[in-house]
Amino acid sequence: MAKGICVYAENYNGKIEPVTAELISAAHSIKETTGEPIQVIVAGEKCEALTDQLKQSGADEIYAVKTDRDCAFQDDALSQVIADMLKKIDPSSVLVPATPMGRSIFSRVAVKLNCGLTADCTELLVAQREDGTYYIKQNKPSFGENVFVTIVTKEGYYPQMMTVRPGVYTPYEGEGSAEVTYFDDIALPASKIEGVGAVPAEAETDSILAAEVVVVGGRGAEEPESFALLKAFADKIGAAIGGTRPLADTGQIPFQNQIGQTGFTIRPKICISLGVSGAIQHTEGIKDTKLMVAINTDENAPIYNIADYGIAADLNEVLKEYLEL
Ligand SMILES: Cc1cc2nc3c(=O)[nH]c(=O)nc-3n(C[C@H](O)[C@H](O)[C@H](O)COP(=O)(O)OP(=O)(O)OC[C@H]3O[C@@H](n4cnc5c(N)ncnc54)[C@H](O)[C@@H]3O)c2cc1C
Description:
Number of domains: 2
Cofactor: FAD
Bound molecules: flavin-adenine dinucleotide
Oligomer: single chain
Organism: Mordavella massiliensis
InterPro entries: DHS-like_NAD/FAD-binding_dom, ETF_a/b_N, ETF_a/FixB, ETF_alpha_N, ETF_asu_C, Rossmann-like_a/b/a_fold
CATH topology of the largest domain: Rossmann fold
GO molecular function, one term: electron transfer activity
Protein name: Electron transfer flavoprotein subunit alpha/FixB family protein
């Protein structure tokens, strides 16, 4: 009988990616109902260094495979290792970060295990069947991000496998000391992929997820002149720039910087919201901000319901005055 909530610990250059702690949080919320153990799987060349970082992550069990070479981006080979690990562990669910690596590896794992893979979940809920068994309702935006759908893995197919969007769950504050099991009998097969070099990415999303101060633009800041003021303001105070969906739709900001239910969830210390009405689909993505400041001409705008400070004024005038233009 499949048992356990398994989290894939994505790693690069000997470091566990921070999104793993978010998935462990999601796993804990499932464990509260199902009582299953939380298992973390990891594979890599610097395996002991990786498992050391995971021991106090809040997992109950750690399963690891030490590979004989660096296998970053060798998704064809790594997916075989992971499929072999999952066959041995037999978890009821597998939580994977919805990152380019996670998506690429686990689409291959799903084929090897003949199970499904739900992409890009933003909410995982546990439900119970009449026979008392549990299953996961995998909620995600769909159809051009216009509706929320609930996907359920067909009964009897395990593991229930899903990728979870980074930034949705608060990172788990690690505790405990999990036992590590090494699978010495699983070897990394040959790969058809050879890494020829690495170029650092312009990590726009990472910068907005990690930023302590974020300036968020809405339709009220959509005009080029207003957006230029917003950019100058963000530059001056050293803030990252996020936006509402209309700004992502018009290409004013990349999708990776859209905040909200179908975008990203941010938890900065300070968020300054400019020309944003405060629709629930947007505020869901900023509700954990510690200090919220809003500028909106409409003093009845819903954004003021969540703002700590508000300025009911034209953002162009406020920014010009601040920037002394
Ligand atoms: C399924 C679904 C998912 C969605 N997901 C998201 C999501 O992830 N993120 C998201 O943001 N939205 C999302 N939306 C859209 C959401 O419902 C709102 O339509 C959107 O957030 C509104 O964006 P806005 O506040 O920029 O624009 P508006 O609602 O048009 O508000 C613009 C505001 O700017 C103010 N304003 C205008 N000019 C000025 C000025 N000169 N100075 C100051 N203030 C000014 C106006 O008073 C107004 O309040 C989703 C919708 C659906 C149906």
